[in-house]
Amino acid sequence: MDKFRMMFQFLQSNQESFMNGICGIMALASAQLYSAFEFSCPCIPEYNYAYGIGLLVTPPIWFFLLGFVLNNNVSMLAEEWKRPTGKRVKDPTILRYMFVSITQRSLIAPMVWISVTLMDGKSFLCAFSVNLDIHQFGNSTLIDGMTEVEIVKLLAKIPCKNIFNQPEVISREAASRYIKCISQAFGWVFLLLMTLAAFMIRAIRPCFTQAAFLKTKYWSHYVDVERKLFDETCKEHAKTFAKVCIQQYFESISGDMRSFHKHRSSKDDSDDDDDDKKKSDEDKLLGIRDQDDMNKVLWNWHTCKPPLALRKEQLDGESHEGLIPNGDVHGVSGGPNGYANGHAPDLPKREWAAYYSKV
């Protein structure tokens, strides 16, 4: 279980690798599903085309929708698209980048299915056998004596080896090879076009719009990271909230849970530990200790997310907090260096060096 948990955490932390793995698994599954699929052409003129084209088109649509379902970024895209504007403007280019990225991954499995189907040629043979020119592969003497309906029925039976009963009229093997050859040609052309399209999207597009591409890629990653951190913060707060709530419940039911029969020193140690735990819990609660307050925080996060502009004074205060004692900027008596009237007593001098970075 620990190994599976570590693997799951690794996949969660590497979202792009996880989704690429899912796409690869779906592609292999589509090829394996086709190989395990039992192809049964109806060999009826009214149904051959619908069955062959349906087998070529319907499973790719299902794989495409399944790719959207399995992609975790779909919910993030919908949430970002439907959220109120509030203090943060929605950028259509970011939404478009996220949608294109999801669509590209979802198209892998359908492309594999269509390629394998065209390379095999069975569905193409079933769909277009009735459109074959029978005079190229048949006996013209026997064909001239057949009606149009009989010719169509005969051509519809070409994909079905077991029920084809007129080999003297048309060479079934030659007709099948001809249609499968055309199907494979379409398969290779399809692969070539998809590969060129992927190359254009992945390689050439960033060269013309590099700045816009980097901007949209950065902020799409930011939306993903922000959502994950918000979920982790909510989970940590909920865990701490439940822990404190349960502790207060038991304390109210059973009274004082501390033992007064222990030695004084052990009591002091336990009190210190309890104080540390309470401080830690208070830090994790972030000052939100009521259900209505938490509901308000969640509602405000949905309706009015904070603007993407960090407060510089807060960052400066955090960076200089460790350098100035007790957070007093002007010292105990208002002097610029922390001493009365700005004059320091005669103390041993020490050399200090402070380094600042604008990065």
Automatic annotation (TrEMBL):
- Disordered: annotated span: 260-284, 319-346
- One of this protein's GO BP terms? ATP export
Subcellular localization(s) per the UniProt record: Membrane
Keywords of this protein's UniProt record, alphabetized?
Ion channel, Ion transport, Membrane, Transmembrane, Transmembrane helix, Transport
Q: How does it sit in the membrane?
A: Multi-pass membrane protein
User: At the top level of its lineage, which domain of life is listed?
Assistant: Eukaryota
Quote the InterPro entries the UniProt record gives. Answer: CALHM
Q: Which family does it belong to?
A: Belongs to the CALHM family.
Name used for this protein in its record: Calcium homeostasis modulator protein 1-like
